[in-house]
Specification:
about 425 residues; Rossmann fold; Dna Ligase, domain 1; 9-stranded antiparallel sheet; 5-stranded parallel sheet; PRibGlycinamide_synth; Phosphoribosylamine--glycine ligase; metal ion binding; metal-binding; phosphoribosylamine-glycine ligase activity
């Protein structure tokens, strides 16, 4: 069976690793991939947004299944493009990927169908947005409507910060067209939890819970990033919370999308906030999270091909997802300066230390091969993931494993999962 994975980050490396464990005989291609994926698959030098070249490759190589890892191609309609050519593809169509592609759409959907979320208003006119600031309670949250690499969210402590934020998003266009519309949202206090689910249009199957660390610096300080580390499962995602979410969030979201004529097949990622007033949905993503995938998939026992195909065929209710009774922690090794300016091309050493280990993973993100060397090629370079019986042990093991690889300007947060130490 020939598989094409579209993407080149840590998430895609984790997907390819899981595919490589399938009981089926697979030939895996990755476009464009990275230095890690080429150890277990064949990298293809095609951009994720070059739909025509990706389609032509899938047809010429007789690809049986294409898996879209990234948000941009999904939101721009790559699934529709492939399906129109009779190609089998995993991911939501364009009219369903809007769940992530437009925060204004997803907020309106939640309001319409009674799915719990923070109070908000949408604005396309900067003057109206500024006027709205006169009567809000601070802190307040500003969100770019469109895709912004996970960074288009500003938490503003007071009115002056909010004014600057509106200018940054809507006037200066710091995130391009993503800021044409913004959401001004009530600030929620509590603990964030991520829950990923497979969806086949009607049914959903929950993966295990996880928690991301978005800020660049220790203590949740610094700028928002794509994610600096994760742990799974979250001890804060209790049976009681799970029961509430199943009643009020998960199925209601799947049903709401169907009712809107936007049947969703693929991954719905629920960003949840556990507040003292109950669980609220912070955001939806329409694909695997990064770096959540790096702690969730290594714990999944199912053959992932079976699950992908059940989503496409509408038979997910026949699949029972199973996860190992253990824990995983991922620490992201970044280039110092990320998410702003940083240097690339630094030689990475120590990969041999991960060979033959089934409890440690070195997921590549921003890497590339340069001659005989592997060098840094992005802000988030590697995701060091460890599995152990408990979260505490997995955390300890992951941080010890960060010493096994090295590169100049290596940077990481030192407090990933620190909140679990008293809750293990």
């Amino acid at each position: 069976m020939k598989i094409l994975v579209v993407g080149g980050g840590g998430r895609e490396h984790a997907i390819v690793k899981k595919l490589s464990e399938s009981k089926r005989n697979l030939k895996i291609y990755v476009a464009p991939g990275n230095a890690g994926t080429e150890d277990i698959a064949t990298n293809v030098a095609i951009s994720v947004m070059d739909f025509e070249a990706l389609r032509d490759f899938a047809k010429s190589e007789k690809i049986d299944l294409t898996i879209i890892g990234m948000d941009d191609p999904l939101v721009k309609g790559i699934v529709d493009y492939f399906e129109a050519e009779g190609l089998r593809v995993f991911g939501p169509r364009k009219n369903a990927a809007i769940l992530e592609g437009s925060k204004a759409f997803s907020k309106d959907l939640m309001k319409k169908y009674g799915i719990p979320t923070a109070g908000y208003e949408n604005f396309s006119d900067p003057k109206e947005a500024l006027k709205y600031l006169e009567n809000v309670k601070y802190p307040i949250v500003l969100k770019a409507d469109g895709l912004a690499l996970g960074k288009g969210v500003l938490i503003c402590k007071d009115k002056s910060e909010a004014i600057s934020g509106i200018e940054e998003l809507m006037t200066k266009k710091s995130f391009g067209d993503a800021g044409n519309t913004i959401v001004i949202e009530e600030f929620l206090e509590g603990r964030e939890v991520s829950v990923l689910s497979f969806v086949d249009g009607k049914h959903y199957a929950l993966m295990t819970s996880a928690q991301d660390h978005k800020r660049a610096k220790d203590g949740d300080e610094g700028l928002n990033t794509g994610g600096m580390g994760t742990f799974s499962p979250s001890p804060f995602y209790t049976e009681e919370i799970d029961k509430y979410c199943k009643e009020h969030i998960y199925q209601k979201t799947v049903d709401a999308m169907r009712a809107e004529g936007r049947e969703f097949k693929g991954i719905i990622f629920y960003g949840l906030m556990l507040t003292d007033k109950g669980v609220k949905v912070l955001e939806y993503n329409a694909r695997f999270g990064d770096p959540e995938t790096q702690v969730v998939l290594p714990r999944m026992e199912n053959d992932i091909i079976d699950v992908f195909e059940a989503c496409i065929d509408g038979t997910l209710d026949k699949i029972e997802l199973k996860f190992e009774n253990n824990a995983a922690v991922c620490v992201v090794l970044a280039s110092d300066g990320y998410p702003l300016e940083y240097e690339k091309g630094k030689k990475i050493t120590g990969f041999e230390n991960f060979k033959g280990r089934d409890d440690l993973y070195c997921f590549h993100a921003g890497t590339k091969r340069e001659g005989a060397d592997i060098v840094t090629n992005g802000g988030r370079v590697l995701g060091i993931t460890a599995k152990a019986a408990t979260l505490k042990d997995a955390r300890k093991k992951a941080y010890e494993a960060t010493k096994l690889v090295d590169f100049e300007n290596k940077y990481m947060r030192n407090d990933i999962g620190i909140s679990i130490l008293d809750n293990d």
